[in-house]
Design a protein that fits this description.
Transporter; 15-stranded antiparallel beta sheet
Length: 380
């Protein structure tokens, strides 16, 4: 099942990039020719039902479910001149080791390594802004502040903790509205391309004190960025009918070149599918499935210590570039709350939490236990 999902996601992403480069430069007629046949076909079907096909953006900030669950980004486009500011907080907890789908004890890992991770927490404060450049293109920028902490145990039974924190990689994106239509019988439907780039503003040389010495270079999972410029292509679809809304999104992270330390992180692909129900004008609940796959690191950081002692025992799994990949399916549940309009501003409070229902790791690696998201979105 995961292979077919991966191929679907890859096809959508590659197709998205191809469409973007094939689009004519004139913004006013950007998609008219591309979607004209679709509009004509839908119009005929609407006429047969005695309905009128309406073309437009259909973004409605006054619905609590006008945005996807807070763990999904770049899920909608804005009307011309609209701003949206978002603050997100994410907490993720990882606990116990896994190889493939098999759980491992600390003793299992210490048979082959001098040190094993025991648990890890990741916290992110994400600040983003969106702006409707026109009714076709929405611009987005996001900067995270990241805090990581990992607890370890060595063969002598000594526990120690490492920390890293700082700004992560900056993401810039343009969301291109492909098509949006609405009829009374089928509701409203929106399609847009996600095109973006990630800039290497996150630290890839974090250090901390360890039993090996002070200011030791930390391994790959403790780093705050990729160190490379990355492409962020994707495709998003959302729909609304009466009190029900839903969506689908496929996104990729494609690494360009190698960073200054001589390695590059593996590409990453994500597929999100969600549904929400509006219980009242001010509240909705949601359920979401999030599948993602990430690949092992290519080459390695030559400055990172990977063995210890005269016998050259492998130091820790997190320092091995061939033990960083994996795939995971998460099940998430959320609540979106819409507050009364204040001074022309629409305010949304969104919460989401969940846990993996499937994990396959190129381990030994720490497995994810659960994650929690909360966010505030303000539209003006």
């Amino acid at each position: 099942m995961t292979r077919s999902i991966r191929y679907l996601c890859f096809g959508l992403i590659v197709g998205s990039v191809g469409i973007v480069y094939a689009l004519p430069p004139a913004e006013g007629a950007l998609l008219d020719g591309l979607m004209g046949g679709v509009e004509e076909s839908l119009g005929k079907k609407a006429d047969e039902k005695g309905e009128r096909l309406i073309i437009g953006n259909f973004y409605q900030a006054e619905r609590p479910d006008s945005h996807a669950p807070i763990g999904v980004m770049q899920d909608h486009t804005h009307n011309k001149g609209e701003f949206m500011f978002t603050y997100r907080y994410m907490y993720m907890y990882m606990d116990k080791m896994r190889n493939g789908t098999d759980n491992l004890s600390s003793n299992d890992v210490l048979k082959d390594f001098a040190v094993t991770p025991k648990n890890m927490t990741t916290q992110m404060h994400m600040f983003s802004a969106m702006y409707g450049l026109n009714d076709t293109i929405t611009l987005m920028a996001m900067l995270p502040y990241v805090m990581k902490e990992m607890e370890h145990q060595n063969r002598a039974g000594v526990n120690f903790t490492t920390n890293s924190s700082g700004f992560g990689d900056t993401k810039l994106a343009a969301l291109w509205r492909l098509y949006a239509f609405e009829t009374p019988s089928i509701g409203s439907h929106r399609f847009h391309l996600n095109t973006g780039v990630s800039l290497p503003t996150g630290d890839i040389n974090p250090t901390d004190n360890t039993p090996l010495g002070n200011n030791s270079l930390l391994p790959y999972p403790m780093r705050l960025g990729s160190g490379t410029v990355d492409l962020l292509p994707g495709l998003t679809y959302t729909g609304v009918r009466n009190n029900v809304s839903w969506g689908f999104q496929a996104l990729g992270t494609v690494r360009l070149g190698y960073n200054q330390q001589g390695y590059k992180e593996g590409n990453q692909y994500k597929v999100n599918s969600w549904g929400a129900y509006r219980w009242a004008d001010w509240i909705s609940t949601s359920a979401r499935l999030n599948w993602q796959q990430w690949y092992n690191i290519k080459r390695e950081d030559g400055q990172l210590q990977t063995t210890v002692g005269p016998a050259q025992i492998p130091l820790v799994p997190t320092a091995d570039p061939d033990r960083q990949g994996g795939q995971r399916l998460d099940l998430m549940g959320g609540v979106n709350i819409l507050f009364p309009e204040f001074m022309g501003l629409e305010n949304h409070l969104n919460v989401e939490a969940g846990a993996p229902i499937y994990q396959y790791l190129d381990g030994p690696q720490l497995k994810q236990a659960w994650s929690f998201w909360v966010g505030w979105q303000m539209v003006m």
